[in-house]
Amino acid sequence: MGVCSQDLSTIQLSRRGVEILQVNLGMRCNQACVHCHHSAGPGRSELMSAEACKKTLSFFESNNIATIELTGGAPELNPNFKDMVRSVRAMSRQVVVRSNLTVLFEDGLEGLPQFLAGHGVELVCSLPCYLEENVNSQRGDGAYKKSIAALRMLNELGYGENGSGLLLYLVYNPGGAFLPGDQAALEADYRSKLRDMHGVIFSHLYTITNMPIGKFAKQLRAAGSFDEYMGLLKESVNFSLLDNVMCRDLVSIGWDGRVYDCDFNQALNLPFGSAEKRLWDYSLDEIVDTPLTLSEHCYGCIAGRGSSCTGILN
After folding, report:
1. What is the rounded distance in angstroms from the CA atom of residue 307 to the CA atom of residue 22?
2. Confidence check: pLDDT of 113 > 90
3. In whole angstroms, what is the distance from residue 253 CA to residue 24 CA?
């Protein structure tokens, strides 16, 4: 760890395969979090169409990919969401949904927790802190109470309970321009605090580094601390983590079907291959064999103990 003679501009990295097809169902969200790298929110209208969903599922099925991960925005707000889940589960494959929790209380989504449990959907849910003030400062007033209420509702259905098969992961991200603390220690804190304060249980905690893009980058620049944060990432870099970065086993699909190496590249509009082509215009071999697109923000994934959609890398 620490400053290294290497830099990302000298490295060529390739994908090992595609174990996860991460699909962004749209930029519409019931929240407008200050750290959102997609700048998703209630005013966004972009949603994956029914036709694009169908073609994405066809690619997923024909290439025997193990897992589909539905994200957004709030993926649950896409009217094709339930059909996507049903279709993947009918293939006997895994569905992961990245949820902000509060969306479960939106009008028209009544019964959604029961639907998710009934289809054995794995949930990865944002909860940037176990303290109300910190959560509300990132996600808006009232977000914490709604999140806790949603977690209790999910717990009642068996989510987070050992042996239930209903996995419930929580996601922590720092509340400022610093790296996450130790994931195991934070998980222990979350587990004791949420249990003692609210009777809430969960499967595991993921810690994710704030990437210097989107709304977070705007905050850093407004505070005059963007260069300082980039310096922190580079000073904390561990190039050995490149063996484990998520883009080596994952491909990200935008709401319009365009292909990206990861969700962060999608936020920066750094598409894989031709910007005119869509997922269904490629073969899986083409996606696997093309070098990954790396840029300055990628230092965030290999700083400290590393960061991915499933927490630390080492």
Report:
1. 16
2. yes
3. 6
Provide the mean pLDDT of the chain: 93
Nearest residue to 71 (alpha-carbon basis) of 113, 119, 103, 112: 103
Quick check: 117 and 157 in contact, CB under 8 A? yes
pLDDT at 306: 93
This prediction has a pTM of 0.94
Q: Report the C-alpha gap between 250 and 66 in whole angstroms.
A: 11
Backbone phi, then psi, for 137, in 5-degree steps? -70, -30
Query: Rounded to 10 degrees, what is the CA torsion of 32, 38, 43, 46?
Result: -150
For residue range 164-186, list pLDDT tens digits in order.
Answer: 999 999 999 998 899 999 999 99
Which domains occur in the chain, in start order?
A: 16-224+246-289 (3.20.20.70)
Alpha helices for the chain (secondary structure H): 50-62, 81-90, 112-118, 132-139, 143-156, 183-198, 214-222, 226-235, 263-267, 284-289
Distance CA(174)–CA(207), nearest Å, equals 8
Residue pair 254/241 in contact by the 8 Å Cβ criterion: no
For residues 66 and 186, what is the distance between their CA atoms, to the nearest angstrom?
A: 30
State the pLDDT at residue 139: 85
Give residue 5's pLDDT.
44
Question: How large is the average pLDDT for residues 267-287?
Answer: 93
pLDDT at 6: 58
Q: How far apart are CA 302 and CA 282, in angstroms?
A: 29
Q: Which two tokens stand for residue 191?
A: 């587990």
222 pLDDT more than 50: yes
Q: Cα–Cα distance between 171 and 174 in angstroms, integer?
A: 10
The single-letter code of the amino acid at 291 is P
Q: Which two tokens stand for residue 6?
A: 């290497």
Query: Could you give the CA distance from residue 85 to residue 32 in angstroms, rounded to a whole number?
Result: 25
